[in-house]
Amino acid sequence: MPPSALPELFSWDVTSPNVGRAGPGGVSDDEQRAVGALREALLREAPGARGEVWSVHLGAGMQAGYVADGLVATARRDRRSRVIVENPL
Description:
The protein has one helix and five strands; from the N terminus they run ββαβββ. It is mainly beta. It has one domain (3-85). A five-stranded antiparallel sheet has the order 2-1-3-4-5, covered by helices on one side. Strand 3 (50-58) and strand 4 (66-77) form a beta hairpin. The chain is globular and about 45 Å long. The model has no long low-confidence stretch (mean pLDDT 85).
């Protein structure tokens, strides 16, 4: 499949403030859905949790899995239990 025909995907991941514990994550074909899922996940995490949404595509050959194309948004959960999207691009 030519690169222009590849579907645009968005990967989101949360980093927990608790050492040794990875947070939730997922992939969507819709940017706003990915940002919404990140916000929802951060609401279930402790204050200090952070997350990112990346534009990604499926790798091929030796790059099996998702390959990051660029950062779309970053977010964090603040101490007042509100999620702040810091960098919606």
